[in-house]
């Protein structure tokens, strides 16, 4: 069955543009639109989309509150609703809060159509995606504002092997599985296994939470150079 998508943006022209892009792909079906967070929550409950393509800055209920409410509702049902945030990074200072609210990732609004479609597939499969070109910039800018919501996150890192800690560090720097595999000279399948182990041991939902956890625990720090 095609991946059902709900479009949420307060700008009708943007919704129309995204609809045209998504409906060009047989694997994707746009099941509805919403102009603000309140409409998004109502539409998500009514239409049961696989993926909500969510704007953040909207009048009334914004995308963060809508994401939190939709995912809280979905958690009490047997539906697996995923939220993929689209944002204009240079002016939007709420991306991290959206990720904390449970969004499965974010992309910039000027993302190429093929990357948008690929991201929707990734999120629909239950994985997370963060635009690689802005992961480091985002976390360097915001990580100092992130109070820990878990008791002493560094303690939980003791469960990781040395190789798993290295994978977490590279993941937090925005490297893809393929890039991590090349860096560590292992197969991409091995990297996927390590990432899965990291998520399981730390009790995290996806790669996005892993990145935030790595910054909170001090695995990587804002402004730290790559090596």
Automatic annotation (TrEMBL):
Q: Name one Pfam family in it.
A: GerE
Q: Which residues carry this modification: 4-aspartylphosphate?
A: 55
Q: Which SMART domains match?
A: HTH_LUXR (SM00421), REC (SM00448)
Q: Which domain of life is it from?
A: Bacteria
Entries under InterPro entries matching the protein: CheY-like_superfamily, NreC/VraR/RcsB-like_REC, Sig_transdc_resp-reg_C-effctor, Sig_transdc_resp-reg_receiver, Tscrpt_reg_LuxR_C, WalR-like
CDD domains registered for this protein in UniProt = LuxR_C_like (cd06170), REC_NarL-like (cd17535)
Acetylation keyword on record: no
Stretches assigned to the HTH luxR-type domain: 153-218
Gene3D superfamilies from the xrefs?
3.40.50.2300
Q: Which UniProt keywords apply?
A: DNA-binding, Phosphoprotein, Transcription, Transcription regulation
Ranges for domain Response regulatory: 4-124
Signal peptide limits: none
Name used for this protein in its record: Response regulator
> Which organism was this protein described from?
Nocardiopsis sediminis
């Amino acid at each position: 069955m095609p991946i059902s998508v709900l479009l949420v943006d307060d700008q009708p022209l943007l919704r129309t543009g995204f609809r045209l892009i998504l409906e060009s792909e047989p694997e994707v079906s746009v099941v509805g639109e919403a102009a603000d967070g309140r409409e998004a929550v109502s539409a998500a409950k009514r239409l049961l989309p696989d993926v909500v393509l969510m704007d953040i800055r909207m009048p009334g209920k914004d995308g963060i509150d809508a994401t939190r409410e939709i995912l809280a509702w979905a958690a009490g049902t047997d539906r697996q609703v995923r939220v993929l945030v689209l944002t204009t990074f240079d002016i939007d200072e709420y991306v991290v809060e959206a990720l904390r609210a449970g969004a499965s990732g974010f992309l910039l609004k000027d993302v190429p159509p093929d990357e948008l479609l690929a991201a929707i597939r990734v999120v629909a499969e239950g994985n997370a995606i963060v635009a690689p070109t802005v992961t480091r910039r985002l976390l360097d800018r915001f990580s100092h504002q992130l109070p820990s919501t878990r008791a002493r996150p560094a303690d939980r890192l003791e469960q990781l092997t040395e190789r798993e800690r290295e994978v977490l560090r590279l993941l937090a720097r925005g490297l893809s599985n393929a890039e991590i595999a090349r860096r560590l000279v292992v197969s991409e399948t091995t990297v996927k296994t390590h990432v899965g182990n990291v998520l399981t041991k730390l009790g995290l939902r996806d790669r996005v939470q892993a990145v935030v956890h790595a910054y909170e625990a001090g695995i990587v720090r804002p402004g730290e150079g790559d090596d």
